[in-house]
Design goal:
CATH class of the largest domain: Alpha Beta
Largest sheet: 4 strands, mixed
Distance between the termini: 18 Å
Number of helices: 9
Helix content: 40-55%
CATH topology of the largest domain: Diaminopimelate Epimerase, Chain A, domain 1
CATH architecture of the largest domain: Roll
Number of strands: 4
Strand order of the largest sheet: 3-2-1-4
Shape: elongated
């Protein structure tokens, strides 16, 4: 189960942001989402996939469609009628089994923990990236004076994180520079301690920003809130 941030975690992260921003023109903005996507397609995809296996399941269960021996006194009409009835029963059985499997699998996979576990990581990554971009725009991180906003976004249910730098930073800093911060954040998520991971990532980002964008001691306004923003589950 994903560990949520405690009040002490939030306080520690806010203090780390404040300390980091005292040394740089950069503005670090931390956001935590409980979950980034609905993943409503996952139960349908799994249900449809399993339902398609119904004919194979019937065959493995030993169902066979047989045709009477033409040389045993049966007429062609009798053979045709029996073969048609056998085929119809097999087809109806497969359809019923498919419907039952579809309904059962859809209900089971619709359970949130199961749905998250069975959703491919590529799909979850896409949703986390999408919501991070939405947050970046909606929170006006691209409106700082020198375009030095930096979003650190964590989605707890997916245990994934994204970092988005505004153009004032991105034009001068290669994306791989942030890898160490993202690794620290990912390690915290994996071991169930997102607060420590967040604080470590903020400290690393602060060091990098202070080196590339040092603060002006006479003019260094705090343009974005330092407190962690918590987003509800979508």
């Amino acid at each position: 189960m994903t560990k949520h941030l405690t009040p002490s975690d939030l306080t520690a992260i806010e203090a780390a942001v404040r300390q980091a921003e005292a040394r740089t023109k950069g503005e670090i903005y931390c956001v935590v989402a409980e979950q980034s996507g609905h993943y409503g397609e996952t139960p349908l995809a799994w249900a449809a996939g399993v339902a398609l296996l119904a004919p194979a399941i019937l065959l493995l269960a030993g169902l066979h469609v047989t045709v009477p021996d033409l040389f045993g006194g049966w007429s062609a009409d009798q053979v045709g009628a029996v073969a048609e009835a056998s085929a119809r029963r097999a087809l109806v059985g497969a359809i019923v089994l498919q419907a039952v499997l579809f309904a059962v699998i859809a209900v089971v996979v619709a359970l949130r923990p199961v749905r998250l576990a069975l959703t491919p990581n590529s799909v979850k990554r896409h949703e986390v990236q999408r919501r991070a971009r939405e947050v970046f725009q909606s929170k006006n991180l691209d409106q700082t004076r020198e375009r030095t906003g930096l979003l650190i976004f964590v989605s707890l249910a997916e245990r994934m994180a994204e970092l988005i730098a505004d153009e004032g930073i991105a034009q001068h800093v290669e994306p791989h520079i942030w890898d160490r911060a993202m690794t620290a954040l990912a390690d915290g998520l994996k071991r169930g301690d997102p607060g420590a991971g967040f604080a470590a990532a903020v400290a690393i980002c602060g060091d990098l920003l202070a080196e590339r964008f040092p603060a002006d001691p006479n003019d260094n306004p705090d343009q974005l809130p330092d407190a962690v923003v918590i987003l509800p589950r979508v």
